[in-house]
C-alpha cells in the first residue's frame, strides 16, 4: 500500500571525524522516503527552493517515490549544518536556515489522499494535522515524529495532533520530556493517554524499544566498527519501519516486530557512510541479509 | 559442576528514592553466590570480620553455597555506603571501609581446588591470580570482573591476570577505559589481544552485549516500571550467567546465549527491591518465567 510522508527535504553541511561535506541532499522526508522506497511506493509531500538540483531530484525520481507533492517555491531550500564529536555521540548544530520551509503549507495531490499509511515527520504539529485533514477516511496507520522544539513551544498543538496518531516515534530524551517521566514504561503509559497506542523509542547506539498493549519489544543497534555519520539514522529507521508495514499492508504484532528490525537495518546502513551515500548504493539483498544478521544478534533458545 | 567465586562479602548502607537501609548484607561475592546458587553448587571464598551476623551467615548456608572458604578474621567486615539519584542513574559513594578486606589473602579449601568454573569478582588483580594458582589443572571456564581503580592503579597486574581468563565481564565505561577505544567492537578486539576470548559488556538499563569469535549477542535489560535499587545488579548478572553455565557444564554458543539471558533475569530481579531482598524470596519458577518473558521481549520471525 502507498505510504504518505510529509517532512523536510533539505541541504545539509556535515562534519564528523570521518569527513566533511559542504552541501548534500538531506532532510527527514528524504531519508525516510529513500529508506521506505525499498519496501513500498512512497508519496512525498515537502517543499524545496529554486536551488534544488536536478541530480538531487533524480535521486528521488528514479526510486519508488512519487514527487508530485514536492512543491517548488522561489527562495532557497531548508539548510542545516552540524558537526559531530570524535565518538559521534554529541552533535553541535552550526546553522539552521528554514528558508522556503518557513512558509510551508503541505498540500496533498489528489492521488495522495487515499494513502492508508501516513508518516508525519518532524514538522510543526499544526501542519501535521493539516496533512491528516487532507487524507480521505481513516488511514490504517498514522505515525509521527516530533522534537524538543515543538514539545516546548507548541505543546497544546502537539497534544491536539497526538490525538489522531497511532504510533509516536521519538528518541529517549524527547520521550522523557513529553511525558515528564524518566522511566520509559511509565512514560509510555502517559503517552498512551495522549492518543497513540504505540510508542517507539529510538535510543541511538542502544537500539530501539516499542511499547504497546502487547508489551515491550526491544531491538539492539547493529554493532558497527566504524560508523561515519549519524545524520538521518532516526529518519531512516522510521522509513524502514513504516515502509515495511505499508509494503505488507499489516499492523499485526509480528509485522510490527519485523518493522522494528527493518527500521534498525536501514538506520544501521545510513550511519555507515556520509549523508545519504550508503542508502544510494544499497541493495534489497543487503537489507535482507542484515535482517538475518539481526536475528543472529538477538535470538536464543531456552 | 561446582562454581568457585572469590570476592567481597560486605555490609552496605543504601539510599535511593525508594528507601534507606543502614546496614544490610552485600558485596559482589554475596550477590554472585546467591544468584548462581539457583543453578549450581557454589564454592565461596571471601573474608568477614567478627561483626558478621549469624543470620547473614544463614542466608548463605541455607542455599547451595559452601562457605568453608569464608574466612573469619578479627576486625570489621568490608563496609560500603552509597546513595542513588532520583532516577537511579547516578551513584555517590558515601563511604568505603575496607576493614578486614584490606589484608585479604584468598585461601582455597582443598575441596574447592577441583572447581572447573571460576569467577574472580572485582578484587585486586594479584589476588585474582593467587586464586587461579590454587586451582588444580586448567578450569573449563574462568571469568572475571574488574573496575576503574585496578585499571588505573595496577594496570600491569591486571594485564597479567587477563592472560589467564576466558571471559572478561565489565561495564561499558570500564571497557572503554581498559581498551582506550570508544567503539565497543574495536574495544573487544583490543581486549582479545590481552587474553580473554569473550567480552561481556554490562550496560545497565541498556542490557548486556557479548562479543566473541562467533560475533555479537545482545540482550536488553528487562523493562521495569519501578526499579528500587541497582546495587548488586552487575554481580547478580554475573552469578546468573556463570551459575547457568556451571549448572549445564557447557560453554557452547547456545549455552552462552542462554547464560546472557539468565544473567539478565537475575540482575532484573535484584533491582526490583532493596539490597538482596528480592533474591531472598525468589523462586526457580519465577526465574524461568522471566527467561520466557525475555524471549517475548526480543524475538521475531523474518
How many E-type strands of chain A? 14
Order of helices and strands of chain A: EEEHEHEEEEEHEHHEHHEEEHHHH
Shape of chain A: globular
Question: What's the alpha carbon Rg of chain A, rounded to whole Å?
Answer: 18 Å
Give an overview in words:
2 copies of one chain form a homodimer. By secondary structure, the first copy, chain A, is an alpha/beta fold. In chain A, 38% of the residues lie in helices and 24% in strands. In chain A, strands 1, 4, 5, 6, 9, 10, 11, 12, 13 and 14 form a 10-stranded mixed beta sheet that branches. Chain A is globular. The model of chain A has no long low-confidence stretch (mean pLDDT 96).
In brief:
Two copies of one chain form a homodimer. Helices cover 38% and strands 24% of the residues of chain A.
Topology:
The structure is a homodimer of 302-residue chains.
Chain A lengths: L2 E4 L3 E7 L2 E8 L1 H9 L5 E7 L5 H8 L3 E2 L3 E3 L5 E7 L6 E7 L19 E4 L4 H10 L6 E4 L3 H6 L1 H8 L4 E5 H8 L4 H11 L3 E5 L5 E5 L2 E5 L13 H16 L4 H20 L4 H5 L2 H15 L4
